[in-house]
Amino acid sequence: MRRLTRGKALSLVRELDAFPKVSDSYVETSASGGTVSLIAFVAIALLAVLEFFVYRDTWMKYEYEVDKDFSSKLRINIDITVAMKCQHVGADILDLAETMITSSGLHYEPVIFELTPQQRLWQSALLLIQNRLREEHAAQEVLYKTLLKGRPTAPPPRAPVEPLGACRIHGHVHVNKVAGNLHITVGKPIHHPQGHAHIAAFVSHNTYNFSHRIDHLSFGEEIPGVISPLDGTEKITFNNNQMFQYFITVVPTRLNTRKISADTHQFSVTERERLINHAAGSHGVSGVFVKYDTSSLMVTVSEQHMPLGQFLVRLCGIVGGVFSTTGMLHGLLGFCFDAICCRFKLGIYRPREESPDDAAQRP
Predict the structure, then answer these.
(1) Nearest-CA neighbor of 267 among 255, 245, 292, 249?
(2) Taking a C-beta distance cutoff of 8 angstroms, is the pair 177, 73 a contact?
(3) Which residue of 112, 125, 165, 232 is surrounded by the most CB atoms within 10 Å?
(4) Cα angle 130, 134, 252; round to 5
(5) CB-CB neighbours of 284 under 10 Å
(6) Burial code of 171-188, b = ≥16 C-beta within 10 A, e = fewer?
(7) 5 φ, ψ to 5°?
(8) Residue pLDDT, tens place only, 178-200
(9) Which of 83, 101, 84 is nearest to 92 (CA)?
(10) How far is CA 117 from CA 156, 158, 171, 272, in A?
(11) Please, are residues 168 and 80 in contact by the beta-carbon 8 Å criterion?
(12) What would the DSSP string read from start to end of 39-78?
C-alpha cells in the first residue's frame, strides 16, 4: 500500500516537471548553435563582472528634515591669514542677540603672507578641486567616501623667516545657533555693555592691508578630508580702505557612512567686496566680515549599498535574459537561413516555361 502511494506521488511529481529531459538521440548540434552559445557565455561573463563592480560600489542618499536642535552650540573652525601684523588686527564674533563671543579660542600667530612654492602648489590643487566641486556635484560624494583616508586639508608647514609681516588667526569658537558676524578688522576688540568696539586709534591708516587668505573655514565637527567652499580662497588688494564680505548659509548635516558617523555642517557662500569711500556714500569699516546664518533644515547623508539578495536576482536575470535572447536570435537566424536556402533551391531546379517563339522554332 505504501509502495502504491509512493508510486502515485512520484508519478504526480514527474508530471509537474517543468524541465523535461530530451534524449541525446534527438539532439542535433550545429556550428551556428555552438557560435551563438560561445557568444552567450562571453556576454554572460562580461555582464556578470560589470554587475559585480556595481554591487561593490555605493551611493549617497540625501534626506531632509526639520532641525529641532536649537539648544546646542555651533562650532566655527577658523584659519585665516591677514597681511597685517598681529598687534594691528583683532577678531571677534557678534551674534544676532548682540552677544559678543569671546575670542579666547582664537590664536594670533605672526607669519609671512607669501607662500612657498610647495604651499602655492598645494593651494593650486585645492582651488582646482573647488572648481570641480562647483561644476560636478557628484565629486562631493567621492570626498565623503574617502575622507577617512587622512587627506591633509592644511597647507604644508614652512620654516619661520623674518620679517613676519602677516598674522594667522586660527582656532575654534562655540557660538549660539543664530545668525552672527565674524569680524576681522583693525584694532583689538573690547567688550562693553553698549556693544563692542575695536581699539584702532593707535594704528596708522597707511598700514591697513586686508589682503587675506582663507586656508580653512568650516562649521561643526572638523572632519579630515572634507573641503569647505572657502578653503584656499585668496584676496589681494592694493587699497587701504577695502571691505571683504562673505554671506554664508549654514546647513546642519549628519553624515553616516560605512566607517564614520559625524555631525557636521555644509554651507553656501556669496562673496562681495567694495571700496570704503565716505565722500561717495560707500560707508563701512575696512576689514574681513563673515556673516553667517543657520538653516532650519537638516540634511542626512547616508552611504547606501546594494543588498546581496538584489545582486543575486540581477545576476539570475542576466543569465536568463542572455540565454533567452540568444536562443530567439539563433532560431530567427536559422529560420531566415532555411528560407533563403529553400528559395535558392527552388530557383535553381524550377523548369523554365516555354515561350511562343521557342515553340515556333521547334521542328
Answers:
(1) 249
(2) yes
(3) 232
(4) 90
(5) 14
(6) bebebbbeebebbbbbbb
(7) -65, -40
(8) 888 888 988 777 766 666 677 77
(9) 101
(10) 10, 10, 25, 29
(11) yes
(12) HHHHHHHHHHHHHHHHHH-EEEEEEEEE----SSEEEEEE
